[in-house]
Amino acid sequence: MEYYMQSPISEEDAGRLRAGDYVYLTGVVYSARDAAHKRMKEALDQGKDLPIELKNNVIYYMGPSPAREGRPIGSAGPTTASRMDKYTPQLLDLGLKGMIGKGKRTQEVKEAMIRNGAVYFAAVGGAGALLSKCIVNSQVIAYEDLGTEAIRRLEIKDFPVIVVMDSQGNNLYETAVSEYAQQ
Amino acid sequence: MREIEVQKLTDSIREMCIEAVHELSPDMLNAFQSACQNEKSPLGKKVLGQLQENLKIAKEDQIPICQDTGMAVVFLEVGQDVHFTGGNVENAVNEGVRRGYVDGYLRKSVVGDPIIRENTKDNTPAVIYYEIVPGDQVKITVAPKGFGSENMSRIFMLKPADGIDGVRQAILTAVKEAGPNACPPMVVGVGIGGTFEKCALLAKKALTRNVEERSSIPYVAELEKEMLEKINRSGIGPGGLGGSTTALAVNINTFATHIAGLPVAVNICCHVNRHSVRVI
């Protein structure tokens, strides 16, 4: 199926997406990668608030290259999601509804996604120039000292992603690969 | 003896960093073109189409092909009749990288210490390899290496009895474990022989070879072709979303080794297999 969807993502939208669906996302997502996840975990451990609202929101695992004058952002493709796996179940339990990245996730992440009705999308890895064209605004909102790893509020328009893991536990990486495997 | 000002290294490397991250070499573009024609999966074809469109946008709008503009790996093949003047060579190389990454709006992805992890903010230091060769010229290769694929690279210290079958198995293991994480279609650089560190360097250098040219050693050329076919039958496909294009090329470099060993290194590169080469 192909969908045009809003982010933040509603419970209904997240629930009806299935592995293999192609989605054009429009709205707001937040960028965060390794160092920002580590800081968010430290904040939670100390009983502090997070710099972003997680409920129904989407985190994009991405650290952009610097923007040239007149552009909202530089190259902006996904980074490998598995490096965030250690932190992800806790964020999902706090309401995180979607993640955009690339690559495999752990069993713990899969279980937390099922428990919370969340979705994991893949954007095309290494297509940072193309994907940057779907980001219309970018603003650093936390951890500015982390440079490319700071948390950014991104306004996206028709940002192309593929559902890799859905809230039922289906995984496109497993099913699609076995379909084309010849040995 | 030919004198070369180190400033020349700085100026060249600055430009080469910027070039490398915005435009792939013609052999890589050809490999993309044939992959697009041959891919069997509709979704795989769509992903390859997006990657080609991405290359076009990157070149025309000067946006890096990938946001991970890498850690700069610099190979210097220095003619033995060259005398560098005007400063320290290592500093000159790093200054070139610094200027390239700052002036070129490239991402600064280097931390100064692997445990303390503070960003150096100018992408230095580079990883520099020197080789002394005959002549009075300097060949510079700048290969910015992204870490999505670097993280999936492997070294296997095989036994001589494992033979060529062990090598085949090692390559397939590394590629299958890498799967979608390494941003397929990949280019697979393999080093066979040498010592522990030598085979890793052979694999890294193999990635800078033309992907359309096979090894000059007949059995290695055969192995490159065979492994490319086998990898493309794995089903991983473009983006890891299933399909018949998992790798664009397998480049294998070999070296002599010890009677007791068979080291194999598999250095995986994503489809953004970048390198810029100049002779000064």
What do you see in this structure?
The complex is a heterodimer of chains A (183) and B (280). Chain A is 26% helix and 27% strand. Chain A has 183 residues and is of the alpha/beta class. Chain B has 280 residues and is an alpha/beta fold. Chain B has 2 domains: 2-20 and 65-145, no CATH class; 148-273, no CATH class. Helix content of chain B is 40%, strand content 25%. Chain B has helices at residues 6-22, 26-38, 42-61, 89-103, 147-150, 163-178, 196-206, 218-232, and strands at residues 2-5, 71-79, 82-85, 127-133, 138-145, 154-158, 186-194, 247-257, 262-269, 276-279. Chain B has a 4-stranded mixed β-sheet with strand order 4-2-5-10. A 4-stranded mixed β-sheet of chain B has the order 6-9-7-8.
Q: Which percent bin holds the helix content of chain A?
A: 25-40%
End-to-end C-alpha gap of chain A: 29 Å
Structural class of chain B: alpha/beta
CATH topology of chain A: fumarase
Structural class of chain A: alpha/beta
Number of helices of chain A: 6
Which residue ranges of chain B are poorly predicted, with pLDDT under 50 across at least 5 consecutive positions? none
Major sheet size, sense and barrel closure of chain A: 5 strands, mixed, barrel
Put simply, the count of helices of chain B is 8
Any idea what the CATH architecture of chain A is? Alpha-Beta Barrel
CATH homologous superfamily caption of chain A: Fe-S hydro-lyase, tartrate dehydratase beta-type, catalytic domain
What does the oligomeric state look like here? heterodimer
Strand content of chain B: 15-25%
Number of strands of chain B: 10
Any key phrases for this structure?
A: about 180 residues; alpha/beta; fumarase; 6 helices; B: about 280 residues; 2 domains; 8 helices; globular
SSE layout and pairing:
The complex is a heterodimer of chains A (183) and B (280).
Chain A: E1 2-7, H1 11-16, E2 22-31, H2 34-45, E3 58-60, H3 88-93, E4 98-101, H4 107-116, E5 119-122, H5 128-132, E6 135-142, E7 151-165, H6 172-180
Parallel strand pairs in A: 1-2, 2-3, 3-4, 4-5
Antiparallel strand pairs in A: 2-7, 5-7, 6-7
Chain B: E1 2-5, H1 6-22, H2 26-38, H3 42-61, E2 71-79, E3 82-85, H4 89-103, E4 127-133, E5 138-145, H5 147-150, E6 154-158, H6 163-178, E7 186-194, H7 196-206, H8 218-232, E8 247-257, E9 262-269, E10 276-279
Parallel strand pairs in B: 1-3, 2-4, 7-8
Antiparallel strand pairs in B: 2-5, 5-10, 6-9, 7-9
